[in-house]
Amino acid sequence: MINQIKGLHHVTSLASDARENNAFFTNVLGLRRVKKTVNFDAPDVYHLYYGDEAGSPGTVMTYFPFPNAGRGRKGVGEVGRTAFSIPTGTSQAWLDRFATFEVTGVAQDTRFGEKRVLFDGPDGDQFALVESDDDRAPWTGNGVSQEMGIRGFHSADMRLQQAAMSSELLQFMGYEKLDTQDNVTRFVVPGGNDANIIDIEEIPTAGYAAQGAGSVHHLAFAVDNRARQLEVREALLDTGYQVTPVIDRDYFYAIYFRTPGGVLFEVATNEPGFDRDEDTAHLGEALKLPSQHEHLRARLEGLLQPLGD
Q1: Among residues 25, 60, 72, 257, which one has the fewest Cβ atoms lying within 10 Å of its Cβ?
Q2: Is residue 3 part of a domain?
Q3: How many domains, the chain?
Q4: Cβ of 82: how many Cβ atoms within 10 Å?
Q5: How far is the C-alpha of 175 from the C-alpha of 198, rounded, in Å?
Q6: pTM above threshold 0.85
């Protein structure tokens, strides 16, 4: 069994409009844009990162906004809903805020005894705010108060036709089965970070998802450093998973593998962090390019959509 994984590192999704995406996460949700860079494989597409003040592991939602991308199709074999942590008793404040911004898909429910506010993002992305006792400090620079600010990720939902093999994988990765409610089983990393919950929703009769705008591209799990990452990679290879070599993503090192249920997993290092090329006070302000794309700067600055901030 792997014991190096601490919980979520980041969640990466697809979008159709960079400006709209930026406005939603910074103005509506009050997160900080901690990095404005580009897709390594498609440098004419942004890679935008939103999180807490420093972009701490377990707080960062990231997006590839492909201009005019078609909507994804919901189904199994994907991450269905990404959940953020909010302070206990603040659901009504968020409901009021969402009404002001005309956020769609707003509803309330309770899962495993925790109150949730459900809502949609600009591309039909499905999210939740979960009331929990979470002492992480929120980013308050975008008009959301300390008292109600998002603390980081709470959890992510995987929607699968069959849960057994993915449940086995999560337990191999150090997660423990905590509880089951209806068709949802909760897994948690004991002693992990504050984003240490994965829920598996089993829907045997559902059709398979198709990726597009509003779809989660991959879930990234956090390890402390490259040494721990290599240990995880070796353990996964020994178990029969096809795992990529280590890839330098500038702000973390990454490996990727596909799960039995079809969801793409990444294991990312907590090092070196988002302040490696910008002072913490100015994160996310300038366009930062991977070194292999720096020669394209003039063209990309003229091509990439202004974010309006």
Answers
A1: 257
A2: no
A3: 1
A4: 21
A5: 8
A6: yes
Who contacts 108 (Cβ-Cβ below 8 Å, separation ≥6)?
Answer: 91, 95, 115, 116, 117, 118
> Do 46 and 284 contact (CB within 8 A), yes or no?
no
Please indicate, yes or no, if residue 196 is contained in any of the structural domains.
yes
Q: Which two tokens stand for residue 214?
A: 């509003």
Q: What burial letters (b/e) apply to 84-99, b meaning 16+ CB within 10 Å?
A: bbbbeebbebbbebbe
3-state SS assignment for residue 286: coil
> ∠109-114-117 over CA atoms, to 5°?
40
Count the Cβ atoms, other than its own, within 10 Å of residue 276: 11
Q: CA angle 183-188-191, nearest 5°?
A: 170
